[in-house]
Structure formats: structure tokens, C-alpha cells
Amino acid sequence: MNVAEAKSRIEQLTNEINRHNHLYYVLAEPAISDYQFDKLLEELIQLEKQYPELQKADSPSQRVGGMVTKEFETVPHRYPMLSLSNSYSEQEIVDFDKRVRKIIGDEVTYVCELKYDGVAISLLYEKGFLSRAVTRGDGSKGDDVTANVKTIRSIPLRLKGNYPESFEIRGEIFYPNESFRQLNASREADGLNLFANPRNAAAGTLKLQNSAQVARRKLDCWLYYMMGENLTFQTHYESLQQAREWGFKVSPNMAICANIHEIFEFIHDWDTARSQLPYDIDGIVIKVNSFHLQQELGFTAKSPRWAIAYKYKAEEANTRLLSVDFQVGRTGAVTPVANLEPVLLAGTTVKRATLHNADIIAQLDLHEKDTVVIEKGGEIIPKITSVLTELRLPSSKKVRFVENCPECRTPLERNEGEAAWYCPNQQACPPQIKGRIEHFISRKAMDIDSLGEGKIELLFDNHLIKNPADLYDLRYEDLFGLEKIIKATDGGNDRKVSFREKTSQNILKSLELSKEIPYERVLFALGIRFVGETVAKRLTEAFPSIDQLMQADHNALIGVNEIGERIADSVITFFQHPDNQLIISRLKAHGLQFEAKNTSTRISNSLEGKNIVVSGIFKKFSRDAAKEMIEQHGGKNTSSISAKTDYVLAGDQMGPAKREKAEKLGIPIIDEDAFLALIGG
Ligand code: IVH
Q1: pLDDT score, position 67
Q2: Average pLDDT, whole number, for the chain?
Q3: Ligand 1, from 83, 87, 223, 285: best to mutate by most atoms within 8 Å of Cβ?
Q4: Cα–Cα distance list, 675 to 78, 163, 361, 627 (Å)
């Protein structure tokens, strides 16, 4: 392929990918499979790598991120980003309508919209391209988060049709409830702090420094307000319908309302229906439809006079605390869960609420049999927000956090600065053992689904397994004939299920197949605390074999992108344990992958045999891209500086200790331009 051919193929792929992005993320009408989509994107990324000069700023390859922003630049808003005045009573809406009619007369019509509970964003489009994305900030200036916003698939990077030359469109970035639940579940499994609700998760994600990390989170965005100098629309409603045509995600859930009755109908309908939405809303926004009348009404210092927000009351209910269970997870963390008198909340019957940790119980001052207020946010399991102390029985005692593990009776421990209590009996506490093996076989780890649905429990109860390595010693005769009782949930008889020929063979077959699972997933599967999928990937990139990783000291580990003190300590502790060393050597003997397969394609030999340490943050490329380029040109990435190091590729914020060491050893420190020159531009 020559340059001209590459250029036209890139253009073709760009259009095709943009079209499918829009079909999938905006219209929710996918036309091709995820696999086919990934293939198109992969082809584009490869071509752009080969011909970097052909990569455009609006290329859909930008969606995967890679830019690292140290500090977000504060930029002024073209038009101030005001908020809306909030009302909690219907009377205030009646008053608003009266005020409006008094000023502009009875010809007014309104648009009612959902009030999305996320993070406000202002997007600037110039000549059809997304040129800047800014958070609200203090209303007059906000943070430039363009690189992160470009990863949100439902936000068009390039518009279609007949759009104005330059305009700003505002909307709300949000975290869909199901993705939020998955995010927190995976953070919990990795021992990370949980986000309190989808809004916090959206805000936290938008401020991540590495846009590649943002791209992996599933943010979404509704657009609801357009502004610009030479817009030709007469009404707000019309402007949004047009914006939809250009490719924006504009909600279909809006209505033109001619009077206060229609407004209340919209408010009431959505108060019931909102629990079915896949994202959170916290109210309804009512806007005067005509732009001309909006202008006539104008603004107060804080908000427009032509719009108002009606806020729903939080979906909450009162119920009684029956008891508190303490559950032990695979990391040994003990989570308290409240059993409640069943109560209807937002369309579902609630029987349990999470209490998270001991601090929450103390903050609530929870007593036995208390009457509690529960609230449903984006989470499936609701939480207790307060206790109605005036209804407390004088005799009731404080709920006490258990001091011993509810499963193995070992005294619990708590690390300084952490909220959770842990059972330290990692080697013998049953839910920890089963939890680790269940994590090992889970889909994103070794993906041995024939061992799902309670089979681990059965094997454990029969003393056949107590760690992942035992799985690979299982023989047909161990499995065949094993029986399990399935408890009846409907009051009928329990059922007995036994492993027959097929089940036993399937288990052995999928164990065999799992030996092909790549090193990075095997490392994740080991269940080292704080080593989630991404961290496992970073570690395997920096240490391409488990032997190298096991030998890495604290300094070498924290020298790796995204690896901090806490992860480094956890990795070292894990590998120091003789039981873990034995498990790894047995897994190795069974043939699991403990080395990275080199997948990057060679472009030149200009760095042949050179050991290079990458450190700091770069302006022209991400740290991962630098490492990839090193390999593509025959070099080797090493994590710590030694006499064998040939170059240190240094960006901003390179640690002073590293610089000193390199200088002491006389190793050349090169910046990004010198590096690019080395590999031929
Ligand atoms: S219109 C000048 N429409 O609520 C007013 N805002 O307190 C522009 N919000 O800052 C805002 N859904 O973050 C508008 N359909 C919607 C909205 C909405 C959510 C947020 C937005 C705004 C805040 C007002």
C-alpha cells in the first residue's frame, strides 16, 4: 500500500467506524458485531501507526485514549455556565409559570426534559470538529478535559450534515447504572475504594490523568442545550432535533407542554417511570421553548429566568432492621449486610442493604431493631442513609462489629488508614479459599466456565481443591459421581445433581484449554490484592516473565506506570509467601503461561540490543506508546536504572532519585525529541 492508498483507506475506515459508533452508542441500533467493529478499529490503528502523518485529530482511534494530562488547564467559558434554580414543591412550579406569563404573556410554551444526574460539560465545535470540552468549574472558567471527553463514544468527534460553523453544546456526562455496578464490583474485587454513586464515578473518571483509563470506563453523555452567535433556530426544541441530526445524543424523553397541567403530567409520569431508566435522573427541567422569549426573560446573576428544575424527592422508604450478617470475601475483607423487613422501594422489594464497613455502622449509630431510612441510588443494593432514633426501643443495644471471623473464628485485623476489617487467616478460612479459586476461574481471568455454578464449593467440600494448582491435579475418577444438593427455593424438595461423564469431561477439557490463557490474565487470576486487570497488564509489560516479576524489588515495581507503593507492597508480600511460590511452581509445571508473548511488530533495528528506562510524562506520546516504540525498533524496556542501561528516556516529573542514579552511572538521559530522532523521526 502506498501513501495515497493508505490515506484513502484511512478516510474510508474513519467514516465507517464513525457511522457504526453512532449506530451503536447514539441510536442503540448496532449493525455489526463487536468483533467486526474491533477489526475495523484495529486496522485503522495499525495504518495510523505505519503512517503517523496521516493521523487526524478527530480520528476514531483517539477513542482508545493514551494522552496523559498532568494538570488540567483552566480555561474561560465563552458563555458563563449557569445553574438552574431548584424547586422541591409543585407550588414553586406554579409560581414560575405565573412569573413567566406575567412578563411575556400567555403565548408561552415549555419544553420539559429529564434532569440527568451527572457532570455538566460544555463542548465547542468548530467547522464540524470537536475542538474543546470544558467542565463547569466555577461557572466562568472550567477544566479543559478534551482528551478524556474524546474517549466517550456517544460524543461525535466530527459532525454530519449542515451544521453551523461554530457553536457550543452543553450536556451531562453520566455513568450508566449497570456499568457503574460493574465498575464498583471490580473495584471491590481489587480491594479499591468504591464510588458512592454513579455521579461521583462520572466526576472521578472525567478527572483521570490517563485518557486510556477513561476510555475503559463506560461514560455516556446526553446533550440538552445549544448556544452560538449565528444560530438560525426559533426554538430550543428545534435546535435539539437538529443537533440529533448532526450526530449528537439527544434524549427522546422530552415534551412540549402548553400549560401547567401538561408540565405536571410530565413530572408525575417520570416520577414513576424513572426507576426503569438505565441511568439516574434527579428531577425534571422546564424551559421556555422560544429563544426569542428566553432572551426577553433574561438571567439573574445565578440562573436563567426562562428555566427551572423540579427536583424529585430521593427514592427512600422506612423499614426495620432485623439483623446484620457479616460476609467474608476472597481478600478476607468482612462486609456487614443488613437484613431488613421487606419493603417496596422504587418498584422492587428490598430485603437487604449494604453497610459497607464498621465506620458506617458507627456513623449511623445503628442499634438492634432500629427503624431505618433506606435510599436507592444507582446501586442495585440500597443503602441505609439514617436511623429514626425517636422510634428506637430504650432497651435496644448497639450493633457491634464482629471481632472474630464469622467463618473461621480468627481475630480480625485492620490496616492503618483502611476502613475494612480483615480475617488474616488467608490459608485456611473457607470463603477466602473458595473466593480465590472462584476468582481464578472467572471469565476475565482463566475463563473456566464449566467450573461455575457452585462446582468449586462442591470440590472444596470434598477436599479435592484448596488452591488453583489443585484444579490441574483433578482426575476423571475424582470428578465422576460427585454429588451436590441443590436447595429448593420454592418450598419444594431439594434436588440432587451428580457429575456424570459429560460434566467431568468438560471440566477436564476446559482446564486443559485454560493453559493457553495469556500471562497477563494468569497474573490477574492469581488474585493478588490490588492487582486488577489493568495493573496485571502493566506488570506483565514491565516484567515479561513471572520470574522477573518475582525478583522485582520495591523500586523496580514503583518505577512502572500506574504502580504505586500500595500495589508494590502487595505484590512483594504475595510472592514472598512460600505457599504462593509453591502454587506458582506447580502451575508452571502444569504448563500455564507465565511469559509474555511478544506481539509488537518490528519497524526498524535502530535500538537493537539497547536497554532503555522510560520515566516521567511526555507531551507527544503516552508512556505506553514510548514503550511500544522501543520494542518496535528492537530495544528492550527495563524498569530500573543499572549499569546495563543504555538510555533513560525522560519526560516531565522524572523522579530526582532516578535522575541522580543515571547521572552517577553516566547514562545518557534523552528527551522525547532526541528519542524520536533516534528512531528516525
Ligand atoms: S439546562 C442555563 N437541561 O442541572 C441552564 N441542565 O442545576 C443550562 N442538568 O448545570 C442547563 N439535566 O448540569 C439543563 N436537561 C437538562 C439538564 C440539566 C441536567 C444539570 C446541568 C445544570 C444543572 C442545573
Answers
A1: 77
A2: 90
A3: 285
A4: 39, 42, 55, 11
